Task: inverse folding
């Protein structure tokens, strides 16, 4: 077993939460203060303990694949492949890591689990698994890090399927080739973010793709779900840095050329990107690289309103200033983040003084923070980009507050998801959703989605929003909402919130997802996204790639 396969052994990872088993969010002893803030925010007067069930207590039906068939199947694979049927593996893989997933995992409510989990070690293994699934009528779900938040890896089968197999790609996790001259690398699909970056950075190179889930997601999952990293303004989104890909389909293999650009018809490469495991299994991809930046500068600018900050981002991006990150929190998110980061009495006092200064500066009592990040491999260039961006920010009413907020965000940029587990232990819920819209539709989308969530929460929660990916034509909007869980109807409560927000997104003409993808949860809104003719085209592609419909049933396409 390779060192990294050992490290990412599923037993080292939480089956019902985020990340490593032995890691958590460090509240630095301020647990009571955090829950006071949360109970104030959600109006929850009591926060009873709501612990997870133990995975060993979850009743599982035996695998629907007979032992003898399992043995024949395993024998058709390479010696390095692994076939697992034990309860931990079946439960761990049964769904992704959204709030809705954790709700059901923690309650032990699994309507389906995989009958078999397979870790292929090479392309021939993937081909053999696909053939076996077609032959036996088993559904097959490609699985990377399993960090989907839209139900993308849920164990699900069609009526005719006799069993469900999970294809965990993480044993195919090598960087196969680095071409320093063309600045590209060919990477196996199951390569985890840290493994990829460690390998590249040893050679002075980087992909620069850092989604918040970076440590626990794979390059195949990034491409399949069209992910966006926190510095996407500089390094591009997954679909943009993809140069070529190879995908094994039940109907054969699709391999695109290693070229920087082609005009040879519609882009099949961009059909692979976003295919979410329903057309084929991505086995390797070639991606565009950059030199590791020598200049990295993150700092904060406060604005009197979300609108003023958004205007600064629009102008910075449209001026072509190469900022790596422009992350603007609205009034409620800025307020919440300030409360969480100033829980000690000393920090509270310092914040009070700062608030006074800000009020004198005309910032009001609830400013919005923009985190401006610049990453360049030329320090003078980087400093010039930062200074130009700061100057536009000032013109839009921004007040530069120095590097401290940026440095602190950068240090903790992968930690927040651990906080969700702590919150869920105390009868609270927290979920996120995202969209994107043109600049001239951004405020209407913001108001509509926020309003829909607040109406549904009915005083029992709070909604916070930020912009984190921006383009010359518009930007993303990312909503986080906290709420007191309705312990008698947790799933119904989540369904109502999701429906309210997604309907609002569709009504404003924004997209159902800027970077999480569609999966099962967003499939009902795909008709609003691409229309009936668009859906028929996608169904046609599916039919050609996967004629018997074994791949990832129930995802991306709504039922007819
Ligand atoms: C706490 C948290 C933070 C997150 N932050 C971000 C963020 O900042 N940016 C962002 O874009 N997303 C984010 N996500 C969502 C998620 O991490 C991304 O969608 C990511 O791209 C999924 O990668 P994965 O390897 O975990 O894929 P999985 O979750 O395993 O799979 C995702 C989809 O891709 C398919 N798939 C996976 N591998 C393959 C393959 N080799 N071939 C074909 N299909 C495949 C699956 O079937 C599924 O449909 C976050 C999720 C969580 C839980």
Result:
């Amino acid at each position: 077993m390779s060192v990294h396969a050992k490290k990412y052994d599923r037993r080292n990872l939480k089956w019902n939460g985020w990340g490593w088993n032995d890691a958590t969010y460090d509240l630095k002893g301020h647990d009571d203060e955090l829950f006071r803030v949360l109970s104030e925010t959600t109006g929850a007067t009591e926060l009873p303990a709501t612990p997870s069930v133990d995975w060993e207590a979850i009743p599982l039906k035996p695998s629907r694949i007979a032992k003898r068939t399992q043995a024949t199947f395993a024998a058709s694979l390479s010696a390095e492949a692994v076939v697992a049927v034990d309860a931990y593996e079946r439960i761990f893989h049964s769904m992704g890591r959204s709030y809705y997933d954790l709700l059901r995992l923690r309650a032990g409510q699994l309507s389906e689990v995989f009958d078999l989990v397979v870790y292929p070690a090479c392309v021939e293994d993937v081909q053999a698994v696909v053939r076996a699934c077609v032959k036996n009528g088993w559904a097959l779900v490609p699985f990377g890090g399993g960090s989907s938040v839209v139900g993308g890896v849920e164990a699900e089968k069609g009526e005719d399927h006799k069993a469900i197999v999970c294809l965990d790609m993480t044993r195919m996790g090598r960087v196969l080739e680095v071409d320093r001259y063309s600045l590209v690398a060919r990477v196996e699909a199951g390569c985890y973010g840290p493994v990829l970056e460690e390998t590249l950075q040893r050679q002075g190179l980087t992909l620069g793709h850092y989604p918040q889930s970076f440590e626990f997601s794979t390059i195949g999952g990034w491409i399949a779900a069209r992910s966006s990293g926190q510095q996407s303004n500089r390094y591009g989104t997954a679909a943009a840095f993809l140069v070529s890909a190879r995908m094994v389909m039940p109907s054969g293999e699709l391999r695109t050329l290693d070229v920087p650009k082609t005009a040879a018809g519609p882009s099949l490469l961009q059909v692979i990107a976003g295919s979410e495991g329903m057309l084929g299994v991505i086995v390797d991809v070639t991606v565009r690289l950059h030199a590791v930046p020598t200049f990295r500068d993150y700092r904060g600018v406060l604005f009197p309103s979300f609108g003023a900050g958004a205007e600064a981002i629009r102008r910075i991006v449209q001026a072509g200033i190469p900022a790596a990150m422009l992350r603007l929190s609205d009034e409620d998110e800025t307020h919440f983040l300030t409360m969480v980061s100033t829980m000690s009495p000393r920090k509270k006092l310092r914040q009070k003084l700062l608030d006074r200064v800000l009020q004198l500066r005309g910032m009001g009592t609830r400013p919005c923070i923009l985190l401006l990040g610049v990453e360049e491999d030329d320090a003078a260039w980087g400093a010039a980009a930062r200074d130009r961006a700061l100057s536009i920010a000032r013109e839009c009413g921004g007040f530069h507050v120095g590097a401290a907020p940026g440095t602190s965000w950068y240090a903790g940029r992968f930690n927040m998801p651990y906080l969700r587990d702590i919150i869920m232990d105390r009868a609270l819920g927290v979920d996120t959703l995202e969209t994107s819209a043109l600049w001239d539709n951004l405020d209407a989308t913001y108001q509509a989605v926020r309003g829909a969530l607040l109406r549904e929460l009915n005083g029992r929660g709070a909604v916070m929003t930020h912009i984190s990916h921006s383009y010359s034509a518009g930007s993303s909007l990312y909503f986080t909402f906290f709420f007191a869980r309705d312990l008698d109807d947790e799933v119904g409560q989540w369904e109502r919130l999701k429906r309210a927000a997604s309907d609002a997104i569709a009504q404003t003409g924004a997209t159902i997802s800027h970077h999480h993808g569609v999966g099962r949860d967003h499939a009902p809104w795909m008709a609003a996204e691409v229309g009936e003719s668009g859906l028929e085209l996608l169904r046609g592609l599916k039919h050609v790639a996967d004629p018997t419909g074994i791949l990832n049933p129930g995802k991306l396409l709504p039922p007819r």
User: Anything to note?
Assistant: The longest strand covers residues 428-438. DSSP finds 20 helices and 18 strands in the chain. Residues 18, 96-97, 141-149, 152-153, 169, 189, 211-213, 217-218, 220-222, 224-225, 227-228, 276-277, 281-282, 417, 515-517, 519, 552, 555 surround flavin-adenine dinucleotide (CB under 6 Å).
